[in-house]
Structures are given as C-alpha cells and as structure tokens.
Design brief:
Oligomer: homodimer
GO cellular component, one term (chains A, B): nucleus
Distance between the termini of chain A: 58 Å
Largest interface: A-B, 85 and 86 residues
Helix content of chain A: 25-40%
CATH architecture of one domain in chain A: 2-Layer Sandwich
Shape of chain A: globular
Keywords (chains A, B): Isomerase, tRNA processing
Largest sheet of chain A: 10 strands, mixed
CATH class of one domain in chain A: Alpha Beta
Number of helices of chain A: 10
Strand content of chain A: 15-25%
Protein name (chains A, B): Pseudouridine synthase 3
InterPro entries (chains A, B): PsdUridine_synth_cat_dom_sf, PsdUridine_synth_TruA, PsdUridine_synth_TruA_a/b_dom, PsdUridine_synth_TruA_C, Pus3-like, TruA/RsuA/RluB/E/F_N
CATH topology of one domain in chain A: Alpha-Beta Plaits
CATH superfamily of one domain in chain A: Pseudouridine synthase I, catalytic domain, C-terminal subdomain
Family (chains A, B): Belongs to the tRNA pseudouridine synthase TruA family.
Chain lengths: 467, 467
C-alpha cells in the first residue's frame, strides 16, 4: 500500500515541477516594460537622507525608524501613467494586492515619502477599472520635503528651529519623480509633479476628465458613429449608460459631457477607407459614472454595425420614457485610457531625463505590440489574397456574430433606481427622509459603509467610481 | 505511515489544482486566438469511422485499438500557419513538450490520421526557432484516407477487397483541415492541404523559402538598409552570418539568396518619414542556415544606425579575408515570420469556411495587438507634445544604447570552421578522409548522431536547421 502511495507522491511532485516551470515561463513572457531608467545603484544626490548611510537606506523600510516629524511636508499633485492590462484596477481592493494603488503606496512607503496612507492626505482623480490604462491619472498627497522655508503647500515641522535650516533654502526639492520611478514596477510611471496649495484635491478640483477608446474600423460605419457620438454631448441622465452603484451612494446620474468625438488615429490618412484603420472615441466630461464610457462605447459599436439607429442614444437618455436600462454588455476594457485629467493653474515640474526614459521605454514596448500586429496583418493579407472573406462581425467582440440580433429596447431590463434604493433601505444601508419642500431625501443609513452619501447635493466631481 | 502518505498526496493534489488554475489564468490572458471555429461537438459527417459510435470516438486515443491497415493512406502536403511567440520552436525537443510539432503530432494521433510519427513518412520544410512564426510552413506526411480507388499518392490497404468499396469512390476525402483545426491549439492552424505523389518531400522538393522581418523605422536609415540588403543577393558563403552547426553536419555555408529587400509595410504611405512607420526586410532563398536571417538582420540594423557601412556585408561575405565570424548578437525573434515555402505544381485544397474562421480569428487577435500599440502611441505622442525627446537607440534592442560602439571587424571572433571540425573529429563525431582528386572529405564518424553527413555534395534544400 505504501509503495502505491509513494509512487503517487512521486508522480504528483513531478507534475508540480512541470507546472511550476510552465508558470514561470508564462509569467516571464507577459512582462511589460515602461522604464529603461539606469541601474538602481545610481544614487540620488539630493535625497534628504543625510543622516543615514547608503547601506542603511537599502534595508527594508520597516526595520529602521524614521523621524518624519523632523522633516517638512508639502502638498503636491503627482501625475501618473500606467498600463492597466496586468492589474486588477487602480484602486486598492480587499481580495487582491494586484492594483496600481497598492504598488504606488508601496513605493511611497519604501522611499519614505509618506509615513502611512491614512495620514498622507491622499486623494485620487479617478478610479480606473481592471484592464484600463491611464496617461494622466492625478493624485494629490502630502510628501516629505527638504524645503525648510515657507512655500506653496509646505508645512514646516514643529519643534524644529527652522532658522538654522534657512540657509538651505537653496536646497532643491526631493526628486520625487526619479525616486518613485526607481522603485515602481515598469508599467507604472510618475511623469511629473506640481506643488499645490494645502487643501487642493485631485478629486474635487479636477476641471475635466478625458477618456480615449481605440478601435479598428473593420466593417463599422465610423461616420455614423461620429454623428451619433455628438448626441452624448450636454448634460443628461446617464443611468442607462452606466452600471448603477447605489450601494456606494451614487444616487443621481446626471453628468455633463463637454465633447464626444470619433476620429481617425492617423488624421493624415483621413481619406483612407481601409478596414484596418484605427479610430479613437474621445470623450471629455466633468465626471463619469461607473463603466459609463464603456457603456457609451458599446452602444456606439451597435450603431456602427447598423444594429441600432443613432437615435437609440436619445432614447436611452430619455429616462422618463426609458427608466430601466436594457441588458447589454459594455465594451471590452483594454482599449480604454484615462487620457487627461485637467487642472487649472498647476505648474507641472518635470525632472530632466525622466521624460526621456519613459519615452524610450514606451517606444520599445510599442515596438513589440506593433510588430506583432504587423506579423498578424501579413497573415491576414495573405489569406485575403487567397480569397478568404471577412464576416462583418465586430472585431472587438470575442466569439462569432450572433445570428439574431435583439434590439436594445426589446430586451429584458435591469433593476430600476427605485428598486435598488428600496433594496438598500431594507438593509439599513440607506434611509429615506422627508426633505425640505416635501421632496424625498435619501442618505446614509445606520449600516452604511460610507460616511458621505446624500442625494441632495450632487457634485459632478464627486464620483465614488469611474470607468 | 499510510496516513502520512495520504495526507501528502492530498496536499500535492491541492497544490496541483491551484497551479493549474493559475496557469490557465495566465495562459488565458496571453491566449492567442487563431480560431473562431464552431463548437467541438459539431460532428464531421464525412469522417470514415463508420464502424464506431460517436461515444467511442471521444475516448482517449490510447484506449481503443484502431485498425489502420483497413484504411487507405495517402501522401499529402499540409500548409500550416502558427504564431511562434508562445512556443519553444517548431521542432520537437528533448527537454520540453512545448513545441509546434508536438502539438501537431498530438492532433494527428488524436484524429487517427496517422498511427505514429515513425511510420508516417513525415518531412517538414523548415524548422523555425523559438519565438518565430510561420504563415506557410509545409509538411508532407501519409494520412489516413477514404479513397479506396487509386489516385495521386494513394496507397490502398492490403487484404481488403477494394472492389466492394469502389462504389464509394464518390466519397469525398476526409476534411483534414477541419479535423485538425478542431483539436489543435488556437495559435496553430492548418490552412489547406494538397495531394502529392508518393516520394514528394516538403524538405527536398521546396523550390524556395521566403522570410519576413518586421521593424519600425525609428531613427534608422531605411534607404541605406535597402541598398545594403541587395548585397546579400546571389550565391555566397554565409558562415559569418549564421550560427555554425558543425556538430549537426552542416559543413558548407554556401547559400543562394534570390532576393533581399527592405520596403514599407504600407506602400500607400511610402512618402511618409514618420519614425513610427513599419518596414519589412523580405528575403527569398533556396535554403537557409541556422539563424541566418536574424544575423543578416542584425547587420542591417547596425548599418541602419550608421554604426557600420553597407560595405561590411561584402566584407563578411569575403570568407577568405574574414574566415572567422565577429561576435555580435542576432536580431530578436518575435518579428520573424517564415512567410512562404514555394512548391511547384501543388493544388492546395481549401475547405469552405475554414479560411474564413482563421481570418476572423486573426482579425480579432490583430485588433488586440494594434489597439494596445495605439494606446502606447497615444502616450508617446503626449510625451513628445510635452517636449520629451527620443534618443536614437534602436527600438528593437532592449536596454540603453551602448556608449562606445565597437566596429564588427575589431571585435573578438568566434571559432573558425576548421577549429570546429577538429573538435568533432577528436570526439569521433566526424571523420576526415582523403577524397577524390586529393581533396579532403569529411563525413560521419563512428560516434555521430546523424546518418547523413557529408560535405562533398551540398544540396541547398537539405538544411538540418533553419532560422
């Protein structure tokens, strides 16, 4: 009996070994580079850690007590770019550590730029979902500073005689961008930073957010899509074009879209009609609901395939006549980029060389993607030359084209807003109350997770979640 | 004791399960689709397995004895396309099972199209290396057939009364393409097949092979590269532009290049000077040496970066004056495609729908690659708009540009051919003999791995390895 068991154990161990090496291989091939910065050994001369030796600095952050109270702090905005394809989203999550924010906070702690997240006065401009990338994610936060003189957003340490330090007012600030990029993973980069006044918030002071969604023409009618996109512009109730997040306190769905366009990625070849041309759906708004852009894109794709008329947008925005969202899938994640978060009056400070490093790394990574795309295109061309014919199935959607398309307005609907509110009121997460002027007010219930839910004063830059 | 062993077994099984799902997850994210063919349950009506039920056919191949001798065989050519990025090369290897050929033979065995590899009369046109793709890999092999009448390449079964089967001469042949594509992995596809005369060989009867290497312009001088490439044309000794494989019996390095060009991937935009334009180095030859194309490309890239003059090619081909290869790295693997293998007089038989399925799957996969490339390009554009400047480092080469470039002819050299021959002669793998006319003949030694090594009759289509 033991022999049989021992044999089984040997087989299992061999199998495990094989799988482990396969797993190692496949995780190595998926590696994404956004950095070609020099060796980590290159030391950073203006680092304020004058009191510690280099060796000590390389120890784990937890081992060495660091006296944050001896240093000034300053309130800054950091501008980040990241490739979202390998992450479970931007925001920290309970069930996974594989988020952009988790990596960011590791870097901030490791570089001793903050003491901990809770006291860092951290705000983020938007939350991007799993698979979604960003070129201009902005966060505001208090970081350790070398500036012992008063200045924009600077808080001097208490119990420190700043007059003795005043001579070092000529000290340059810590090179935040370089320090963080050295320890961040390759596919997350700090692009630049800006000093900001205390109280400035990435979340509440953002003037507008711009998303881009990239897609190939295929057999889509992009002219029709461009015309249809305009219908999104203006202030509308977008409940039928998002994933309602009532449980998190999002109770009103009016948002303002400043512009919504569909344009070729390469404008210089605008007269081309090639199905392999790329287009960009670019949308600028004050703030966005959860999955809003991807729902808007999904509907545009249906219009581009001529499965729906452009007018479907007007109907979906008419929440009086269409109070409940029809069931449809949102567009896939990987083509979406939070391209710009706009703030007035910030002086973005770049650090010499850093921009060049990020550019070089992006160019190498772009090379890999585009070369593979061309290998595939060569094969596509070869097949077409031999007579293979494209179906008119949308290439962004996996699987085959559905045989019988069911118009949106004939489909089953999702729960209404009222029904969802009732659901949470029953569970004590929300409470109804008679408000002023006899209107109904809904706010946090006793069992709510969040402290700040009210449907009475909707502010468009106070999103709990974005796409 | 048994309890401890049983416990260990349970632990190992749990660990295995965990790894399997991780592996599945990571292979799904890296999953390459080349097929959108219908469900595997769709049965294939003209399958000659009339004697067995469907249930039996779905059992593992090993369980059910199959009488191959009752069926005709036919000699065919199969044309394959595969994306090499997830494989350790085309040819079966001892230390890994992750090769295109391994998957191919699994499929051939599973579909009962062959009994075993050894008796299948298998030849392949070329061997592609790890990471290298193919659009026209051709193999020749004997497959099970339904054709009981005499025909091109058909061998009738012995001891079977074919006259009773003659009525089924109207039976169509097995749908080889469909049968294999149903069981092959997504990134390996059979495109079509051709009946061939017995004795026809994918290896020896190939008229020419064409490779393509895709690369972005970046800061390369592509005009100079195009002019330089012409110097490869003609019959030359390419020992300085390959990896010598003396141990495997490759002892002479003369090869004929029919054409070598550098052209834009999109000819319609030929007047563009954009650094993000893609180019193709396309090279057609009778046969190629191991890593030859990648070495040729590496030298072209040095010329394009103006680190070497175009004349370096002439010098490397001048083996009298430069008998030993300077040390240099070959170009990376992923941009290389074995694009065409040319055979005269074959009637490639396509199966309806299969071409369309492969095309649709390639388009979806192309969409992923090109969308990601455009996301990256959008970020690159944004950085350039903010003043970031490209270095002139070649984007195909990882890492930073070397500070001091060392000209090829000033570098240390690899071993000479003579030295390598001596090495193997010492070990008994090769033997020297005085040949006719007083010349030296080198052939298989007593301890050689291969039976067919001789340097006296070089045939250009008898490569043991190709790039």
């Amino acid at each position: 009996m033991s022999d049989v068991l021992i044999q089984r154990i040997k087989e299992l161990e061999a199998e495990l070994e094989k799988l482990r090496s396969q797993l190692k291989e496949s995780s190595e091939t998926g590696d994404v580079e956004m950095s070609s910065s020099p060796s980590l050994n290159e030391d950073c001369k203006s680092d304020g850690n004058t009191g510690s030796s280099k060796k000590e600095r390389k120890k784990s952050g937890k081992d060495r007590p660091f006296d944050f109270s001896a240093h000034p702090r300053r309130h800054v905005a950091l501008r980040l770019a990241y490739l979202g394809w390998a992450y479970q989203g931007f925001a920290v999550q309970e069930n996974t550590d594989n988020t952009v924010e988790a990596r960011l906070f590791e870097a901030l702690l490791k570089t001793r730029l903050i003491q901990d997240r809770q006291t860092s006065n951290y705000h983020r401009c938007g939350r991007t979902d799993k698979g979604v990338s960003a070129f201009s994610q902005v966060i505001t936060i208090d970081l350790r500073s070398t500036q012992f003189c008063a200045g924009l957003g600077i808080t001097l340490p208490e119990n420190v005689d700043v007059s003795t330090k005043a001579a070092s007012s000529a000290t340059s600030e810590l090179p935040y961008v370089k320090m963080l990029n050295r320890v961040l993973p390759q596919d997350i980069r700090v692009l630049d930073w800006a000093p900001v006044v205390e109280g400035f918030s990435a979340r509440f002071d953002c003037q507008s957010r711009t998303y881009r969604y990239y897609f190939p023409r295929g057999s889509l009618d992009v002219v029709l899509m461009a015309e249809a996109a305009k219908r999104y512009e203006g202030t509308h109730d977008f409940r039928n074009l998002c994933k309602m997040d009532v449980g998190n306190g999002v109770l009103q769905f009016e948002r303002t879209i400043l512009s919504a366009t569909v344009k070729p990625a390469q404008p210089q070849h605008a007269s081309s009609t090639d199905q392999y041309d790329l287009f960009i759906f670019e949308i600028k708004g004050l703030a966005f609901l959860y999955h809003q852009v991807r729902c808007m894109m999904a509907v545009l794709l249906l219009i581009g395939q001529k499965l729906e008329a452009a007018d479907i947008i007007n109907q979906l925005l008419d929440v009086e006549n269409n109070p409940r969202k029809p069931q449809y899938s949102m567009a896939v994640d990987y083509p979406l980029v939070l391209y710009n978060c706009h703030f007035e009056g910030l002086s973005w400070t770049q650090e010499s060389e850093e921009g060049g490093f990020v550019l070089a790394a992006l160019q190498q990574h772009w090379t890999q993607s585009t070369v593979k795309a061309h290998v595939l295109q060569g094969m596509i061309q070869g097949l077409e030359d031999r007579g293979a014919v494209s179906s008119n199935h949308c290439w962004l959607v996996e699987g085959s084209r559905q045989r019988n398309y069911r118009p949106l307005l004939e489909r089953p609907c999702c729960e209404s807003l009222e029904s969802r509110i009732n659901h949470f009121v029953k569970r004590g997460r929300l409470e109804r109350e008679e408000g002023e002027n006899g209107g109904e007010m809904i706010h946090r219930g006793k069992r709510s997770k969040h402290s700040n839910i009210s449907s009475e004063t909707p502010k468009q830059n106070m999103d709990s979640k974005e796409d």
